[in-house]
């Protein structure tokens, strides 16, 4: 049965599912849906995902969206995926659901709100909103502290003290990687104090090598393009104050 | 193995897991953690759930939080739970994960933000924040529209067109029931246009009778108490403007 993944590599959950498939040798067709070009709003894409977001999956006749649901489906429906990604043991599996659920209202919400309102909005022709960015940063920083103090435990390098990564590590690390597009001083201010998180990101990269790096190779040119937009916006703002916020 | 559920019946996910256990004949001890009294911040409770939220589960030595993870665990770990609550079929299960994941950033976020900032904050001694309440209401209304136009389908009365309820119906309907505490005119303004949602709430109540009603019997006295707090706050505001927002 043909597997199609509808993704934008600028989207952190898209990168998580692409990395998962590559690491686990799952064959798929990558269908690029460029959010900044509004391709997610086409009538054709509404047939794939009526919520008009990426990522989405089509597997034969079966359609699915929401990245955590997709990761769980991929880990369950394809043979050959090692157990550590999504353990069969009920209690181990439950803990992974717990991390993934927590992610939605904490790390994801904080990170996406901060980065969108402080930078990525410009790629959508929208003004920055520094008040909302600050709200997002507060949630992001509290979430990183919880990852460092609670979700990363002493027993092993991955979430929940695991010795090998799960789908939760992929999902959350791809979220942290989104900070690669913001100014280096901002990234360092936010991530710098969290040595353990930085090590966890490296460990996850290594466990998913070389695919993780290949899929994230978009981050560096994206950062250049976004910071260029930001400096143009700042120039316009200086010429005609009040138009951007 | 003893099962303890740490809950506050004023919390919608707490009500979902209580209802699920009662309907499925799962024995448990209900440990009441009153959020408005700050009981979730005690050092004892931090041992149960370091995130200091309800609900949480302790089953023998196993601890778990996040209500969706708890519902999935309960449906999987206890024999005798009918398949429709959390189907074994991978694709049916994946669709339920998709609803639950969507819920976090849509219905839950909108509803909780709206109700907390327009009313429940007062129970925590906090001021109302009408700007945030309006932001929440916008997300809530968009979410209700998506439930009505997409998640409820023609084939059956429950989410995804199912003929019997799943854990997703319980979780989302308990969220909608949170609107029972707001002023009737506000509830009717928000829910009134959604006849299909109102029918779905009734169908879920009936499928989970009589436990659903019993567990939600807290809503009516809670509404009286909250609206009383609101009218006292309005009186204070009239006497000394600007202190409350």
UniProtKB/TrEMBL annotation, chains A, B:
It holds the Pfam family GST_N. GO terms for molecular function: glutathione transferase activity. Its EC number is 2.5.1.18. It catalyses: RX + glutathione = an S-substituted glutathione + a halide anion + H(+). Residues 89-225 form the GST C-terminal domain. InterPro entries: Glutathione-S-Trfase_C-like (IPR010987), Glutathione-S-Trfase_C_sf (IPR036282), Glutathione_S-Trfase (IPR040079), Glutathione_S-Trfase_N (IPR004045), GST_N_Theta (IPR040075), GSTT1/2/3 (IPR043377), Thioredoxin-like_sf (IPR036249). Keywords: Detoxification, Transferase. One of its GO terms (biological process) is toxin catabolic process. Residues 1-82 form the GST N-terminal domain. Signal peptide: none annotated. It comes from the Eukaryota. Belongs to the GST superfamily. Theta family. This is glutathione transferase. It comes from Fraxinus pennsylvanica.
